[in-house]
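Fold Annotation — chain and its backbone
Encoding — discrete vocabulary of local shapes
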Amino acid sequence: MTATATRVLVLNSGSSSLKYQLLDMHDGSRLAVGLVERIGEETSRLAHTPLATGGAKRETEGAMADHDAALKAVAAELAADGLGLDSPELAAIGHRVVHGGLKFTEPTVIDDAVLTEIERLVPVAPLHNPANITGIRTARALRPDLPQVAVFDTAFHTTMPEYAARYAIDVETADAHRIRRYGFHGTSHAYVSRRTAALLGKAPSEVNVIVLHLGNGASASAVAGGRCVDTSMGLTPLEGLVMGTRSGDIDPAVTFHLKRVAGMSEDEVDELLNKKSGLIGLCGDNDMREIRRRIEAGGEDGARARLAFDIYIHRLKKYLGAYTAVLGRVDAVAFTAGVGENAAPVREAAIAGLAEMGMSVDADLNAVRSDEPRLISPEDSRVAVAVVPTDEELEIAQQTYALVSA
């Protein structure tokens, strides 16, 4: 890597999508951002914004049969802005990989052996790792000479002690099938916990933080001195908080009951719990803005939305209480991601009634909308309550650049 190579391309490959950002690690600025949707369908869509030139968003539509075609289209857009993949300023490509198991505890330069191990983890991440692998293969084919780095969603949570990571099932069976709690959203939890410490003017090692990553997918983590000691998601992203379409915590016997009594297949139960549960299952909406609108409108429809909201908040409170007990001392609670950053009523309701735990929210501060990290608790609050916008792409870029620079 040359001294002038300070750019990192971050790729987040989904089953039919490709999100990307090009960042300059000299100052962390974004040079370009974009998204390819509906890959493999009759008509794909690419939205590209060249931030470096101040240009307007460009949108194109056309058939993109696979991720190879999609990434080549992205490369062409970048080249049109003088930011091509062949630029000597490009230091590396960083890939988001959802599941790294226990083997990958930090960002890792990808070679054939690493790719083989990521493939071995497909059974515990069947919805995510295959798409991540496709993106890696495509990028390696386009730039085989360039360092490619995998940054794992699970890595931040590998510091959990065994008593937090293990399920209480037969040890031999669990070990044989790699059944344990891995946790997800790790790049977000790592980034937000560090930014929260900085907001308090302290080092991460001095601060205990409960991070609430609340988007369509949602997770909580207990971070003690910069290290994750517990998190709400488990073997898969289904466990934990109520989410947009996922149930979160549920009695495992529900699955047996549905198979025996309702005659549902394994695939039908899987789809129910992952795609037809959570907020959308409770009230037919997984958009918190629409749920709040329905609550304010009142009536029977509003009552159904209110129940969904109350169940969502109740689960949040349970995890806030549990993680306060796990940490012993809580210095801050940080809300992040789409709902956490933008839904003031969610933050207010989640903290309401927790004054005895040292947590409270200032209504005026909570109502402020901003893209900057900020405190929303009163000055005399024992526990700081913060809103900290997450930046998973920057976190991936920083970890990637640190590794290839070293």
Remarks:
- The chain has a mean pLDDT of 94.
- The CA atoms of residues 254 and 269 lie 9 Å apart.
- The first strand starts at residue 7 and ends at 13.
- DSSP finds 15 helices and 14 strands in the chain.
